[in-house]
């Protein structure tokens, strides 16, 4: 009689690979069948929240089936292998040129750009160019270069805090307030001096989704230049808004139409509508990107300039970005973004009409809005409790304090993305209403200790 191979036992969960526990923090001695390993990893990941119900993230959680097919075809491409994958390299260039055009680069021939892993890397490249240009100008004027600073709102995304920390730049945060919920140029002059390498303006503030008035900020900098002779450039962090404003608010001048705007970043994986792993940064003119930051890599037997923090990284998302551009075109992007904003405004209106909530904004800039508890509604529960309650239905809705100077204000934020239909929005409202009914029915305050909080996803 044949001795039965232990791996032949079915069903899968009775096989030896499943019967024993897997090593979690060291490599196990023995191999495992691929089906077993697949099942183990798949099942671990099953305990994550459902990505489509994750209203904390800005990052794409739905693409169409042809995009999935393309993804599967090209996931082995390394973006840095420009010599080996010249077609992918060319598509990368087509993408940033399309984006430069969307952002009104004055002379598209002179613009320069690159893909990145996301907006964080893209922002750092923009910031590094500002720093190097400032250093060069100071050196040629015989002035010290040891104290660069960067001026931005206190509501910047954490990537700017990292940038300042990693690259030895003093961050100067202009506090937001109830009267000035975004950086608007109001007191900016107090923060600027000869060591300021630039100002960051945000198109789609992470905390609330609001646009900062880039034109107004630029006008304030014009006055500073006239009065103090300081010519301060702007980098626009358009992580989300960079792929919304060109389609939904084409009349807002926030991009390269403003001369002071040297560079702009966006996340292809947010409202660029591509799965995680791609960002973009573009400079209006290659003269704004100091040459000594650019490295040459071999490309088609020649040399190709690259400016990046990573070396290897996936090329598939760049190809997916091009797919999305071809698939949707201008009209398609406008329709998708308008539908998404429509859902955001619908939700904001409905939530704003509920007594416990007071809207911070209405989801009309990017399709994102925040709200706080209406003062005096109850002492029995707060927005953290509501986040926890919504989790019971699978919804991930973050609650967090606003940045410094307003950190006593606690808000909850909803990010609406492509894939959130009006039907799904109604389901969210159902969950929200029944959560509120339950919480309002409590006759004593929920204990403060032991509450878990929903993290603030950027
Ligand atoms: C304004 C802003 N900048 C930068 C980032 C970082 O983007 P990424 O996650 O693509 O690195 C975010 C992310 O939410 C953001 O909202």
What does this structure look like?
The chain has 458 residues and is of the alpha/beta class. β2, α6 and β3 (170-174) form a beta-alpha-beta unit. α9 crosses α11 (422-440) and α10 (383-391) packs across α11 (422-440). It has 3 domains: 6-47, no CATH class; 69-324, 3-Layer(aba) Sandwich (Aspartate Aminotransferase, domain 2), CATH 3.40.640.10; 337-440, Aspartate Aminotransferase, domain 1 (Alpha-Beta Complex), CATH 3.90.1150. The protein has a 7-stranded mixed sheet, with helices on both faces. It has a 4-stranded antiparallel sheet with strand order 10-11-13-12. A two-stranded antiparallel sheet has the order 8-9. The longest helix has 37 residues, at 316-352. It contains 11 helices and 13 strands. It is globular. Helices cover 35% and strands 14% of the residues. The mean pLDDT is 93. The protein binds pyridoxal-5'-phosphate. Residues 58, 118-120, 123, 157, 159, 202, 204, 206, 237, 239-240, 267, 279, 458 line the site of pyridoxal-5'-phosphate.
């Amino acid at each position: 009689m044949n001795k039965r191979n232990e791996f032949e036992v079915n069903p899968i969960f009775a096989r030896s690979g499943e019967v024993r526990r897997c090593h979690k923090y060291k490599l196990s001695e023995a191999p495992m069948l691929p089906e077993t390993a697949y099942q183990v990893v798949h099942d671990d990941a099953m305990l994550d929240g459902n990505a489509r119900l994750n209203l904390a993230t800005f990052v794409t959680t739905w693409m169409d089936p042809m995009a999935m097919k393309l993804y599967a075809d090209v996931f082995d491409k390394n973006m840095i292998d420009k010599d080996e994958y010249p077609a992918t390299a060319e598509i990368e260039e087509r993408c940033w040129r399309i984006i430069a055009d969307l952002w009104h680069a004055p002379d598209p021939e002179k613009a320069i750009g690159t893909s990145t892993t996301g907006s964080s890397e893209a922002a750092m490249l923009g910031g590094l160019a500002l720093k190097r240009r400032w250093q060069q100008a100071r050196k040629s004027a015989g002035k010290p270069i040891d104290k660069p600073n960067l001026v931005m709102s206190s509501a910047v995304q954490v990537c700017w805090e990292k940038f300042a920390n990693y690259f030895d730049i003093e961050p100067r945060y202009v506090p937001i307030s109830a009267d000035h919920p975004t950086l608007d140029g109001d007191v900016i002059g107090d923060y600027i001096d000869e060591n300021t390498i630039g100002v960051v303006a945000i198109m789609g503030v992470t905390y609330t989704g609001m646009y900062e008035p880039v034109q107004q900020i630029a006008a304030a900098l014009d006055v500073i230049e006239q009065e103090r002779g300081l010519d301060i450039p702007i980098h626009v962090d358009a992580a989300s808004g960079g792929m919304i404003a060109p389609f939904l608010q084409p009349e807002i001048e926030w991009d390269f139409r403003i001369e002071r705007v040297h560079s702009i970043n966006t996340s292809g994986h947010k409202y660029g509508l591509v799965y995680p792993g791609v960002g973009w940064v573009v400079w209006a003119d290659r003269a704004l990107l100091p040459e000594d930051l650019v490295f040459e890599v071999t490309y088609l037997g020649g040399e190709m300039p690259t400016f990046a923090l990573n070396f290897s990284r996936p090329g598939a998302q760049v190809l997916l970005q091009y797919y999305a551009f071809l698939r949707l075109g201008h009209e398609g992007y406008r329709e998708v973004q308008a539908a998404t904003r429509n859902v955001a405004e619908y939700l904001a209106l409905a939530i704003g009409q509920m007594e416990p909530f007071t809207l911070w904004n209405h989801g009309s800039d990017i399709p994102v809005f925040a709200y706080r508890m209406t003062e005096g509604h109850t002492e029995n529960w707060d927005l953290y409790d509501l986040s926890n309650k919504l989790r019971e239905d699978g919804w991930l809705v973050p609650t967090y304090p606003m940045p410094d100077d307003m950190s006593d204000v606690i808000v909850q934020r909803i990010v609406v993305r492509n894939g959130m239909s009006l039907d799904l929005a109604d389901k969210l409202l159902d969950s929200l209403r029944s959560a509120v009914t339950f919480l309002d029915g409590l006759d004593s305050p929920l204990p403060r200790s032991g509450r878990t909080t929903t993290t603030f996803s950027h």
